[in-house]
Amino acid sequence: MTVAAVLPGPADFAAWRHAARGLLGAGVPPEQSEWRVAGDAPGLFAQGSLPPAAGGGFQVPRAFVELAEIAIRHNDPERFALLYRVLWRLTHGEHDLMQVATDPDIVRLTTMAKSVRRDAHKMHAFLRFRQVETEAGIRHVAWFEPEHHIEEAEAGFFVRRFAGLRWSIVTPRRSVHWDGHDLAFGPGGRRADVPPDDAVEPLWRAYYAAIFNPARLKPGAMRAEMPRKYWRNMPETAAIPRLLAEAPRRAAEMVARGASAPNARPQRPAQPAAAARVVDDMDLLDTSGDPKAALAALARELAGRNDLPDFARRATQLVFGEGPPGAPLFFVGEQPGDEEDIQGRPFVGPAGRLWNRALGDAGVPRDEAYVTNAVKHFKFTPTGKRRLHQSPDAGDIAYYRPFLLREIGIVGPKLLVALGATALRALAGKALPVMKTRGTIVAGPEGLPVFATVHPSYLLRIPDEDGQKREYARFVEDLRAAHARVH
After folding, report:
1. What DSSP letter does each residue of 200-222 carry, written as one string?
2. Which of 108, 168, 429, 451 suits 331 as a labelling partner, its CA being 20 to 30 A distant?
3. Is the pLDDT of residue 129 over 90?
């Protein structure tokens, strides 16, 4: 017999948790449960009713609760059953399930949560209010078409941001209303319920045109960040075709007006003029079908920035990551060393050679590993003919982190491996003790798992030979454990 759990709303985590406790308390396994939202048709074989929630609670990892609260907003009709299946496994012997990054259920939940977060980000960025005159005064109304059930969860963001306005957000499923004091929810509506424009539209278009930089035009990146389905709700997008068409001419005019004197000690050879590059750059990052090209484009973008840290300008060159796109293991080190800076390749110095040897001893095929650094330029202090390594600080890590995250997104690994404190901070987003975290999984960007271990340079600094052998063996075991997590 199948037991049915009927929830009052499509993203009501509290109701799901209450129902799940009742099913767990009654010993109902996942395959004998059916989940639906009130108003949905019952399943063909649903016969039993949900038992009352049992007294007491169940100990589950905080990571599950945090992931479930977001994943339940996904539009997948199987999300409730998936959450209950994971909960059942966690409470029936698989206590470490959340740390198994390659488990199909965990992968699916993590992917769902990532999609929900992205949908929320798009709502924050691309929702536009129109001003409407009502009997009660001015109200600002916006239309948005979310992919997932995020309306109630994201309402608080707009209350905080527009607390002093009276506004309504209309979506196909729900409407959200704020009168300056109370938040209310109602049924969905139609796009026609929202006025197409208002007196503020020309200001949006003028502002967008004013900040548009034709010399740094990357339409591929624009489309990736702002898909066309959002364009019809945003007044500024009407100007995009014209701005794209005018970009080569405007870039040429910028060049003709002249520029500041070049750096006397440039990091790289002079680049072609912006006007000559602008057409070629039109689809610079529009390379979703070719990750190798996307990685190369990302490296060119970083190398061409004019706001690099001062130490980067003293380096010989940018040192970007290496390895096959799609590699399941993504290794992150600290920064290039002296030899890496000269050769332009990561992990070719003493520590890198040790890492490569340990990788082989751990049985990790080289084509399953992508390797890069949290900081992409060699930071050093010159002392005569030598260049002494200087550790990156928090500001250095923060500068390069967006590029590291994009690099991860293009490669698409299953597991991130942090080699040392700098890498761990870049991936976790905060400082964590390496030795206490070593061998464990911490949350990384977009929910990706991060496996922490030491940097191979740590092994080179151990003074006695016995200590070096012992720590090398332990390092090999760390790499072997990381590899096992993706197979």
Report:
1. THHHHHHHHHHH--GGG--HHHH
2. 108
3. no
**Taking the CB of residue 421, how many other CB atoms lie within 10 A of it?**
22
User: What pLDDT, in 10s, does the model give residues 268-279?
Assistant: 544 444 333 333
The residue type of 110 is T
CA neighbor of 422 nearest in space, from 359, 352, 355, 336: 336
Is 393 within 8 Å of 309 (Cβ atoms)? no
Tens digit of each residue's pLDDT (9 = 90 or more) over 403-454? 999 999 899 899 999 999 999 999 998 899 999 999 999 988 877 899 999 9
Q: How far apart are CA 267 and CA 314, in angstroms?
A: 7
For residue 329, the SS3 value is: strand
Count CA atoms closer than 13 A to 327's CA, side-chain side. Answer: 24
Residue 351 in contact with residue 375, Cβ under 8 Å?
no
Q: Which of 324, 431, 412 is nearest to 374 (CA)?
A: 431
Local structure of 63: helix, strand or coil = helix
| Measured distance CA(324)–CA(454) in Å, rounded | 23
DSSP string, 249-272: HHHHHHHHT--PPPPSS-SSPPPP
The edge-to-edge listing of strands for the beta sheet with 449-453 is: 369-373, 329-333, 415-419, 449-453, 441-443
Look up residue 357 and give its two tokens: 């040897």
Region for residue 363 given its phi and psi (left: phi exceeds 0; alpha: psi -120 to 50; beta: otherwise)? left
> In this predicted model, what pLDDT tens digit does every residue of 62-78 receive, in sequence order?
899 999 999 999 999 99
Distance CA 420, CA 67 (A): 27
Tokens of 189: 């509506």
Bridge partners of residue 443, in order along the sequence? 449
β-bridge pairing 137-143 and 167-170: parallel
Contact residues for 390 (Cβ-Cβ < 8 A; gap 6+)? 311, 379, 380, 381
CA-based max dimension of the chain: 84
Cα dihedral angle (440, 445, 447, 452), rounded to 10 degrees?
-10
Strands (E), 259-397: 329-333, 369-373, 380-383, 386-389
